[in-house]
């Protein structure tokens, strides 16, 4: 039996081949009844559209390049992997192939060939890429979205991001509700905008509750679990021990908790911890980490939906904020 074609589907449905093409590519211009009739016939005949023909007709590759910044810390890369899962899930539903490109800071730019050869319909960047890299893609007029962006809303490109200011405020407020008034902060100034948001949320919450904090309790030098451990040691060495620490990243909390335990103190008996991200490992450490989840999988799905809208010429939100939720586990002692 010969392979079923678009012409065969059109003949069986008593419609034009254009109508069948509209249904295949999710375009408007076909009534609900006609669309359903075409879909039913496709299902009955086990019709499989020719991917090459689809690309030629729409002048698209149906490839999306996912650009991932690689970090030395394997724990830090966990956050990116959960965003990637959301992107892959949505891309399957939308009919795209995902091609991944790993980059490290200062590494030779490998995106030039992809742009020149036009073998991609757009780019999704996880985390804020270097300005020169984003500028190159922007100049090429190639669609792109930055997911888990820390840049201000005023930038020109589309972003999918969490409200890290609100997440930090939420984490700090939770500790205060548990009657913790001596709360330290561990974060990273390696990502300036992220630091402004997370420290800003912590600072605002402390101020709103008329709580002070010594300068030794503010440690912005964390980049991974090892540097976070050093930040926690600096807090302990200050001679003024807090009852709780908000860490602007679960990996920072993991390193800091390790430092506390090595110092002969207990978590949460002596010092409580709240993280931010809710990466998978946070629920398996001892004790399991209370944290603020920013739903990385949802961020990935929304990024994929946004790039599809841009490519298809549909309206889209330039800035999309995803909600955060506090996940209560066992790393916080209730002092009430």
User: Which residues form runs of ≥5 with pLDDT under 50?
Assistant: none
Order of helices and strands: HHHHEHEHEHEEHEHEHEHEEHEE
Number of helical stretches of at least 4 residues: 12
Helical coverage, percent range: 40-55%
Average pLDDT works out at 87
Helix-and-strand structural type: alpha/beta
Distance between the termini: 76 Å
Helix and strand topology:
Blueprint (H helix, E strand, L loop, with lengths): L5 H8 L3 H8 L7 H13 L6 H8 L4 E7 L4 H21 L2 E7 L8 H6 L4 E5 L4 H9 L4 E4 L11 E4 L1 H14 L5 E4 L5 H17 L9 E2 L5 H13 L6 E4 L2 H13 L9 E6 L12 E4 L2 H17 L6 E4 L2 E3 L9
Parallel strand pairs: 1-2, 1-3, 3-4, 4-5, 5-11, 6-7, 6-8, 8-9, 9-10
Antiparallel strand pairs: 10-12
How is this structure best described in words?
The protein is of the alpha/beta class and 336 residues long. The chain contains twelve helices and twelve strands. The strands form two sheets. A six-stranded parallel sheet has the order 2-1-3-4-5-11, with helices on one face. A six-stranded mixed sheet has the order 7-6-8-9-10-12, with helices on both faces. Helix 7 (131-139) links the parallel strand 3 (122-126) and strand 4. Helix 5 crosses helix 12. The model has no long low-confidence stretch (mean pLDDT 87).
């Amino acid at each position: 039996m010969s392979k079923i074609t678009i012409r065969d589907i059109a003949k069986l449905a008593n419609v034009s081949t254009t109508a069948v093409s509209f249904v295949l590519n999710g375009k408007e211009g076909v009534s609900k009844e006609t669309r359903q009739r075409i879909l039913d016939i496709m299902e009955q005949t086990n019709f499989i559209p020719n991917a090459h023909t689809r690309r030629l007709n729409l002048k698209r590759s149906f490839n999306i390049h996912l650009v991932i910044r690689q970090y030395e810390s394997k724990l830090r890369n966990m956050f990116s992997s959960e965003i990637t899962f959301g992107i892959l899930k949505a891309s399957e539903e939308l009919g795209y192939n995902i091609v991944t490109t790993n980059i490290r800071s200062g590494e030779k730019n490998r995106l030039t060939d992809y742009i020149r050869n036009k073998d991609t319909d757009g780019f999704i960047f996880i985390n804020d890429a270097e300005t020169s890299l984003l500028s190159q893609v922007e100049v090429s007029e190639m669609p792109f979205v930055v997911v888990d962006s820390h840049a201000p809303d005023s930038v020109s490109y589309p972003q999918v991001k969490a409200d890290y200011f609100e997440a930090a405020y939420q984490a700090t407020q939770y500790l205060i509700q548990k009657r913790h008034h001596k709360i330290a902060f561990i974060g990273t100034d390696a990502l300036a905008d992220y630091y402004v948001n997370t420290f800003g949320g912590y600072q605002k919450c402390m101020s709103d509750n008329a709580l002070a904090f010594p300068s030794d309790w503010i440690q912005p030098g964390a980049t991974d679990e090892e540097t976070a451990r050093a930040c926690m040691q600096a807090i302990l060495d200050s001679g003024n021990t807090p009852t709780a620490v908000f860490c602007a990243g679960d990996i920072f909390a993991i390193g800091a908790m390790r430092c506390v335990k090595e110092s002969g103190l207990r978590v949460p008996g002596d010092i409580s911890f709240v993280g931010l991200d809710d990466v998978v490992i946070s629920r398996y450490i001892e004790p399991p980490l209370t944290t603020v989840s920013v739903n990385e999988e949802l961020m990935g799905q929304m990024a994929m939906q946004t790039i599809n809208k841009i490519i298809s010429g549909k309206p889209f939100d330039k800035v999309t904020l995803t909600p955060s939720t506090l996940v209560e586990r066992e790393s916080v002692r209730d002092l009430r």
